[in-house]
Design a protein that fits this description.
Chain lengths: 255, 431
């Protein structure tokens, strides 16, 4: 498995982050972030709360502004130009901790909205694509319901399908399982694993270390706004180098 | 003692079937005992309330049913009643056209506002009930122009010119909006202005005199018709303006934001009566000396500004109630600002704001009676002025004001019922 996944990682660059710094007011949240993500790579970002991991991936699709440094996504440099931002956002899918489905639209409408309005796909074609991805996340029968009628796990899978309908080249996951009951975490992780097996470039902020071991080809540990350690999952979990990483791992794996 | 209490282990093998509730828990007598005579104080309150309701009805009902519907003057009415208690509804029948259309709307033209009133239902229906076919919106689109022509009469060229201006503005907007919203918007406004300016010269001078519909001046309009005209116009104008103000107040562009904040705070801080006096007396100073802006239009501008400021604040509350995640989800899918607002944010924010908006709409509709203070003869103005001061009907307060109250109550209660239906219809969050 590990070898097979290694094979798919190309040497083409998907995301480059170069000397990025970000402040909230005078608080320095992200410090000198350098990160290169290759196409097909699956990166898990972990770290204690407040370490800036969510902020980091939210900078990639410009939900947060960065003040210094360069972010380049799929050849497009992220600047304050709204056209560039919208282009990057339509290429980068994102899943949130609280799903953020649109409660006034049905599941199908949630999935077809962006393709119809941003990509200008004809409605019929968008609906076919949406049904395809809803089948892929295994809830085609819920298409006509509203998000409020679904369980948390189902909602998160719809959120994944909604992002996939835009045919993104990169997927960002911001703690996708943190708001879910234990029974529902597995169904969401299974969806993410099948996505990974198809070679999607993924950046996941998560505390699911089993998922990291199984799927990731790189694990990044952040603390106090810096990348403290990054390594392949085997090395990272079995042989962490920094003291901070060792402490973190002992705390989350210790029970 | 069952044997389950002796041991800890217990396994249920079959589900207990559902049973109907005991017979004593249902029925009308049960309901009365629980709700009307639950305890001694409760029973006393019930009896006292029943007595109060009885005395009110015993006084009012004979007065209503004994009412006189046919008489020419109050004196004649009293003669018919001959000392018994009874209402003099004859004033309503005798002065009906004045109550509805005002003092000097030509009687031969009453069919025009009546037709406009009937058409109003067809124009409002597709906006209010969105299950109706969308093609009906065409009626809504043409309704303002048709109604203008019906009510004011005169040459048909004016509403056609107004419509042409809007079409030109829309076409220019469509052409440029892809570049930037501001270019589209201001381009559209300028195009409409140009069409109206040029068109103004094209309308021949005597067009109003030999027009198909006899022209009627604004000052000749009155009665409940005037309240309806003001209410419908101002509500339908102030909701879109309120939305724009609410979005503007949230804008990240400081200039736009401050214009909206100053406008809203200023208008909210001034009584409507003051604004109406400004409209009737002082607004003329703001227009070029030779132009005479119609009093009706000036009042519409003031009431619209007033209620738009309030509606903006209600909608701002709705916007603030939306979780930040909705904005982020819309952004992360690549929707631009206009799309995110139109498709994601506003539908939800407006849904939350429905009770507040309806509250303001109902208040606005009732406030249209304030124009009687600046000597416009709306229904209250008609009652206070021409009818009560006439020698024939001097002193019939209850019947006239009760009728006005009833008209407003029926309309406002209808609006309120509609809004409750709308809330139920839009409830998709299944909380």
């Amino acid at each position: 498995m590990a070898e097979a996944t290694q094979m798919k990682v190309s040497d083409k660059v998907a995301i480059t982050i170069d000397g990025m710094n970000k402040w909230y007011g005078s608080f320095h949240v992200l410090r000198d972030i350098d990160l290169t993500v290759y196409q097909g790579e699956r990166i898990v970002i972990c770290g204690p709360s407040g370490s800036g991991k969510s902020t980091l991936i939210r900078c990639i699709n410009a939900l947060e502004e960065h003040q210094q440094g360069k972010i380049e996504v799929d050849g497009t440099v992220l600047s304050s130009d709204l056209k560039n931002i919208d282009k990057i956002r339509s290429e980068v899918g994102m899943c949130f901790q609280h799903f953020n489905l649109f409660p006034h639209l049905t599941i199908l409408e949630n999935c077809t909205l962006a393709p119809i309005w941003v990509r200008k796909t004809p409605k019929k074609e968008a609906e076919e694509t949406a049904m395809h991805f809803l089948e892929k996340v295994k809830i085609p029968e819920q298409a006509d319901k509203y998000p409020g009628q679904l369980s948390g796990g189902q909602q998160q899978r719809v959120a994944i399908a909604r992002s996939l309908c835009m045919k993104p080249r990169i997927m960002l996951f911001d703690e996708p399982t943190s708001a879910l009951d234990p029974e529902m975490i597995k169904e969401v992780l299974d969806t993410m694993i099948s996505l990974a097996e198809e070679g999607m470039t993924m950046l996941c902020v998560t505390h699911e270390m089993g998922f990291a071991r199984q799927v990731a080809n790189r694990v990044i540990f952040m603390d106090q706004g810096q990348i403290v350690e990054q390594n392949e999952p085997e090395e990272f979990f079995n042989n962490p180098k920094s003291d901070r990483t060792q402490l973190f791992l002992s705390q989350i794996l210790g029970h | 003692m069952s044997d389950t209490s002796n041991t800890v282990a217990f396994v249920r093998t079959e589900t207990i079937p559902q049973m109907p509730p005991p017979a004593a828990e249902t029925g009308a007598i049960k309901w009365m005992r629980e709700n009307l005579f639950a305890s001694i104080p409760n029973a006393i309150l019930t009896l006292v309330s029943a007595y109060v309701i009885y005395s009110i009805l015993a006084g009012v009902l004979p007065w209503i049913f004994n009412g006189v519907w046919n008489a020419q003057t109050l004196a004649e009415c009293r003669e018919i009643l001959d000392g018994t208690s009874g209402a003099c509804f004859a004033v309503l029948t005798e002065r009906w056209p004045q109550l509805v259309f005002g003092l000097s709307y030509p009687a031969s033209e009453y069919w025009r506002p009546s037709l406009a009133f009937v058409l109003l239902f067809f124009a409002a229906a597709p906006v209010m009930f969105f299950d109706l076919p969308r093609k009906m919106l065409i009626i809504t689109l043409f309704y303002p122009f048709i109604t203008y022509w019906l009510l004011w009469g005169g040459t048909v060229l004016i509403p056609i010119l107004a419509f042409a201006g809007f079409v030109a503005g829309y076409l220019v907007y469509q052409r440029f909006v892809a570049g930037s919203f501001a270019a589209g918007f201001f381009g559209g406004v300028i195009a409409a202005m140009i069409v109206w300016y040029i068109g103004g010269f094209l309308i021949p001078d005597g067009a109003n005199q030999n027009a198909m519909l006899r022209p009627v001046a604004s000052r000749d309009m009155g009665g409940f018709m005037l309240n309806m005209m003001l209410g419908v116009t101002c509500v339908s104008l102030s909701i879109p303006i309120g939305i724009v103000l609410a979005l503007g107040r949230q804008s990240s562009m400081p200039l736009i934001k401050w214009i909206c904040v100053v406008f809203i705070e200023f208008i909210r801080g001034v009584p409507l009566i003051t604004l109406l006096f400004v409209a009737s007396v002082m607004l003329a100073y703001f227009f070029p000396p030779e132009s005479s802006v119609d009093l009706f239009l000036r009042v519409v501008i003031m009431i619209t500004m007033f209620s738009a400021a309030y509606i903006a604040e209600v909608i701002r509350g709705g916007l603030a109630a939306l979780p930040k995640g909705q904005y982020e989800a819309a952004d992360s899918l690549g929707l631009d600002y206009a799309q995110a607002m139109r498709l994601i944010i506003l539908p939800q924010a407006l849904k939350i704001s429905i009770p507040g908006i309806v509250n303001i709409a109902v208040g606005l509709f009732k406030d249209t009676t304030l124009v009687s203070v600046i000597s416009m003869f709306d229904i209250v103005g008609m009652i206070r002025g021409p009818i009560l001061s006439s020698t024939d009907w001097n002193g019939v307060y209850w019947e006239l004001l009760g009728f006005a109250a009833l008209l407003f109550f029926v309309t406002c209660y209808g609006i309120s019922q509609y809004s409750q239906w709308l809330e139920r219809r839009l409830a998709t969050d299944h909380r």
